[in-house]
Amino acid sequence: MVVLGIESSCDETAAAVVRDGRETLSNVIASQAEVHARYGGVVPEIASRKHIEAIVPVILQAMEDARLTLADIEGVAVTRGPGLIGSLLVGLSTAKALAFARRLPLIGVNHLEGHVASIFLTDSFPAFPFIALVVSGGHTTLYLAEGFRRFAVIGQTKDDAAGEAFDKAAKLLDLGYPGGVVIDRLAKNGNRDALSFPRGMKGSLDFSFSGLKTSLLMRLKKRGSPFAPEELPDVVASYQEAIIDVLVEKTLRAAALHSVFRVVVCGGVAANSRLRERFRGDAARSGIDVFIPPPVLCTDNAAMIAAVGDHLLQEGQRDGLDLNAVSRWPLA
Ligand code: KG4
Ligand code: ZN
């Protein structure tokens, strides 16, 4: 079926048209990052207003790119949560209005399940069961995925998410927002062994990144002055490697522990070039197949929401027009 996906959980307004949960006919993303950059993070009230401005043009663009009209759409899938409630409501209200006006089935989708399903939009994806690492600005969780809506948590962060660790470091170093992209780029010219940073919660499948951020803060305080521009590549390369080390090691260990030798890595941080390189290299050595979507499907998008929506709608699941947004919605 042809599903229109709508995503507005954070600071990206996105709409996409996906056929049969596999084929992306269009994937439009309007980022607000520039607007929030001056505040060093997402300002929820501004995010909601920007979503309102962008949502209709973004949907129209998605229809145009897919070379379809609303008459061709057979279902509407929308992110119901988790996320910023004011932001979610913009996408949800728009989806409901469309479903009501066009008499289309509506389905609310979990954003985290969307990240996992982004792999089904690529040519290379695993069969269930697999281990999924969802690593984004708000989440760092390891799941044993046995099917759609059948996830078990096998490890998760006890404090900050990995994306937050990137964003907070960028803020401390005055590198701008969103931090992950800037650090990824700067780290390419740095020495990963220049500075030593802690690797949290060794032995466990849970994560902790707050000590890492504190360690950077303490270094800055001890120096009494910001790092010089020529020092920054080494600092961020070492910091980034500390995050990636634990993500790769724990994910591959989880696969071995559960005897599930297929791993999906998804969410915004999975766009990181060094993370992708490390996963590919280490997994090959340990005989585990690693599947990572292309960067554009790692960061927030609506194609992944349509992919989950297609599956649920095919199963006959439907939501009513009384569907509400939820800021917290664990996958398991
Ligand atoms: O999945 P996402 O777009 O939104 C959430 O659901 O949170 O993830 C956003 C997070 C941000 O923390 C951002 O800094 C991080 O993903 N990110 C990256 C990269 N691109 C985005 N982190 C590291 N390297 C990147 N290239
Ligand atoms: Zn996300």
Largest sheet: 5 strands, mixed
CATH architecture label of the largest domain: 2-Layer Sandwich
Radius of gyration: 20 Å
Number of domains: 2
| Ligands and ions found | 5'-O-[(R)-(carboxyoxy)(hydroxy)phosphoryl]adenosine, zinc ion
Structural class: alpha/beta
End-to-end Cα distance, whole Å, is 27 Å
What fraction of residues sit in β-strands?
Answer: 15-25%
CATH-defined topology of the largest domain? Nucleotidyltransferase, domain 5
Number of strands: 10
Categorize the overall geometry: globular
Instruction: Give the helix tally.
Output: 11
Query: Average pLDDT, to the nearest integer?
Result: 97
Top-tier CATH class of the largest domain: Alpha Beta
Strand order of the largest sheet: 3-2-1-4-5
- The helix-strand sequence is EEEHHEHEHEEEHHHHEHEHH
Flag low-confidence runs.
none
- What name goes with the CATH superfamily of the largest domain? ATPase, nucleotide binding domain
How would you summarize the topology of this molecule?
Blueprint (H helix, E strand, L loop, with lengths): L1 E6 L4 E8 L3 E9 L1 H5 L6 H23 L8 E7 L3 H18 L3 E5 H7 L12 E6 L4 E8 L2 E7 L5 H11 L6 H9 L22 H14 L8 H26 L4 E5 L6 H14 L2 E3 L3 H4 L4 H12 L18
Parallel strand pairs: 1-4, 4-5, 6-9, 9-10
Antiparallel strand pairs: 1-2, 2-3, 6-7, 7-8
Helix pairs in contact: 2-3, 4-11, 5-6, 5-7, 5-8, 6-8, 8-9
Bound molecules: 5'-O-[(R)-(carboxyoxy)(hydroxy)phosphoryl]adenosine and zinc ion.
Zinc ion binds next to helix 4.
